[in-house]
Amino acid sequence: MQITTEFLDKHNVSGPRYTSYPPANFFNTNFTSSDYLEQLKASNQQQPENISIYIHIPFCPQRCHFCGCNTEIGQKRSFIERYVDAIKKEINQVCEHLDLKNRKLTQVHWGGGTPNAIAMRYIFDIMNLIKEKFIVDANAEIAIECSPAYLEFEHIDQLAEMGFNRMSLGIQDFREDVLQVVNRQKPKHDVKQIVDYLRGKGFNGINLDFIYGLPLQTADSLKETIEKAIEIKPDRIVTFSYAHVPWVKEEQLKLEKIGLPSPKDKMDMLINNIQQLQQAGYTSIGIDHFAHPDDQLAIAYKNKKLHRNFQGYCTLETTGQVYGFGASSISQLWGAYAQNVKSAAKYIEEIENTGFAIERGFTLNVNQQIVRAVINSIMCNGVLYFDEIADQFKMSADDIKSIVNYDVSKLVDFEKDGIISISEKGIELSELGHKIARNIAMAFDPDLKQGESIYSKTV
Ligand code: SF4
């Protein structure tokens, strides 16, 4: 079945992105540093046993008008130095409560902001501490998000030397006029040369990020951008839908003034993206991720071993419980989510004073852990097998059904449209169903009604 505008239109409703369940808007400020401390200790006995680290660098040389991230502009060197020291202090503090003898570090992810906008010596500094503290698995995935506007070839050499082996480049669009109106610098060097250079340095899972739905973009212009991306042959391509939420990010109003593509244009862009990338041989994962068939993500997807955290899709093998460091970073543990304060200044102050900077979080009870497992399975692997979830939680399949309020009547329309097939075992999403996995996951989300209008559109 072909993906069409009518199909996407029909299913384009407001809903959570499900980068976490429950979504981050459910986190609350009753969750404090002492709750985090308790969860840190508990995490040593929980699953997954592996450790993932997320480092947030909330600095950018200038602000893109579409930005939905937590970042700050124009901070001085002395401030950045204090921030780096605070991250090191936070790592030391957290390590005091982790079992570092028996648990391995399998994933490190640097995000932002623009991690490569700070001097490489700071990245060295933090990476050295990480290597000193943790047992780094030989196959650990060490990734960094970079802006090609500030990336030099010698930076790639230095990152490779530090052990980085994966990079995500935020391209957004190859059209310079689009970049200009959204207040973003163009890449400093030819992107193909960067990708080839990265590969020569042993990087894999090289990813190019794009955004569709920005001012000046048309279905045809984006088609050219994606063609160019395909010619570069990265391992992964992500085409994010621009999430217009000016009630959260006021800066986005500037884009409204320039004029945003119509919903119909945006649909056409999405359909083109999917068709172009599938024709080029990329495996389509979810609605907006595409991976070369030899890439680990595509292999994990095929084997139904895909996972998802705040940093994006990942494989179940490399992903551990996530310990976040830095302002606004979120720790994703088995039993809880914990988020640090968003302001870098407040983060530094709290870390300097107490060693922790938790602002809010959420403790999951067993039922919520089950709903999370159900939603993850639908979102990542396009299946829900009640027996598998039941085994994981040592319960019966009927218990699981009752906890997620399983109600076939909520799903019959999806079945009629060929989006899912329903059996005794559970549900399986068709290829088309994978494109609207968020909508299907919503049918299993007991909390959804409480705030659905605040979410962006699912397509
Ligand atoms: S580079 Fe990324 S984090 Fe920085 S302002 Fe632009 S979109 Fe936001």
Task: Report on this structure.
By secondary structure, the protein is an alpha/beta fold. It folds into two domains: 5-12 and 21-330, pyruvate-formate lyase- activating enzyme (Alpha-Beta Horseshoe); 365-445, Orthogonal Bundle (Arc Repressor Mutant, subunit A), CATH 1.10.10.920. Helices cover 39% and strands 20% of the residues. It contains 18 helices and 19 strands. It has helices at 5-10, 33-43, 77-95, 120-133, 153-162, 176-181, 191-200, 219-232, 253-258, 263-279, 296-302, 344-354, 366-381, 386-393, 397-403, 412-416, 431-435, 437-442; strands spanning 51-57, 59-60, 72-73, 104-112, 135-146, 166-172, 207-212, 236-241, 283-285, 289-291, 306-309, 312-315, 321-325, 330-332, 336-340, 358-363, 383-385, 420-422, 426-429. The strands form five sheets. It has a nine-stranded mixed sheet with strand order 9-10-8-7-6-5-4-1-13, with helices on both faces. It has a three-stranded antiparallel sheet with strand order 14-15-16, with helices on one face. Helix 3 runs parallel beside helix 4 (120-133) and helix 3 (77-95) crosses helix 12 (344-354). The two termini are 18 Å apart. 45% of the residues are buried. The structure holds iron/sulfur cluster. Residues 60, 63-64, 67, 69, 71, 112-114, 147, 170 line the site of iron/sulfur cluster. The site of iron/sulfur cluster has 11 residues, from loops.
